[in-house]
Amino acid sequence: MNFTVVNKSICVDNIRIIGVSSSSVFLVGDTDSITLSSVFDTPPESLIIGPFVPLARS
Questions:
Q1: How far is CA 13 from CA 16, 40, 43, 47, in A?
Q2: Using one digit for the tens of pLDDT, what is the confidence trace for 26-37?
Q3: Is it the case that residue 14 has pLDDT exceeding 80?
Q4: Helix, coil or strand: residue 45
Q5: Can you give the pLDDT at residue 1?
Q6: Which residues have CB under 8 Å from 30's CB, separation 6+?
Q7: Contacts of 3 by beta carbon, 8 Å cutoff, 6+ apart
Q8: Contacts by 12-21 with C-beta closer than 8 Å and gap 24+?
Q9: pLDDT at res. 54
Q10: CA dist list (Å): 22 to 9, 34, 39
Q11: Which residues lie closer than 8 Å to 25 by C-beta, 6 or more apart?
Q12: Domain of life, per the record (predicted)?
């Protein structure tokens, strides 16, 4: 697959973020690389691991 990118100037006046999902990336402009990391701020004793809940069929 050939993919051509043409970079042009970008002007961002205002950004309003209402919510963030558990896995999200917000980019404005170009990036050479993205490094993923994870932070778990809940104490281990409050983590409840139980059976999976099946998804409802639509």
A1: 10, 33, 39, 41
A2: 777 777 777 777
A3: yes
A4: helix
A5: 82
A6: 7
A7: none
A8: none
A9: 66
A10: 31, 17, 11
A11: 34
A12: Bacteria
Q: In the predicted model, is pLDDT for residue 58 greater than 70? A: no
How far, in Å, are 7, 31, 33, 44, 52 from residue 27 at the CA level?
Answer: 15, 8, 12, 32, 33
Q: 12 to each of 28, 34, 42, 51, how far by Cα in Å?
A: 8, 21, 35, 45
Place of tokens 């983590």: 47
Rounded Cα gap, residues 56 and 54, in angstroms: 6
Length of the chain: 58
pLDDT tier for residue 25 given thresholds of 50, 70 and 90: confident
Q: State CA 6 to chain mean position distance.
A: 24
